[in-house]
Amino acid sequence: MVKGIRNLFIFTRCVKKTISHGNKKFNVYVIKDSPARATIYGTVVNNHFFEKYNEAERLAILYHEEYHKKFLSIIKSSFNIFRFLSFKKANWQEEFSADEYSLKKNGRAPTISFLKKAQKDYDDMVVKYDPRTHPPISERIKNLKK
Fold it and tell me: What is the pLDDT of residue 3?
């Protein structure tokens, strides 16, 4: 119930855009003060997404978030499997997997480029870095260069 109210709040203060990549269409909800994240309805981003990132980098972000959307229910339903792991380790592994998914769908260069710009956002405090949910960008880039 609370999540439904939260989603209603989110979607009443946003602008919906559709971004196409070939036959693929992404639903993007633009909210001024929101970091990028996946929802069951699409990806939530802020204006920064359109101002800072080029088209290839935006696609890399959208594919990264698509991974979270596609595998969100699988991971949540597999909670018991991850129970013996730390939440941090499970969250970090999901981020590595989302980066790899983005790389496969959109290429190495745009995926690494968006990560480098995301590091600058963390450094400039545009986006708050949470080490419980995201591994350091340097480790994510290193993982993609393997």
Answer: 52
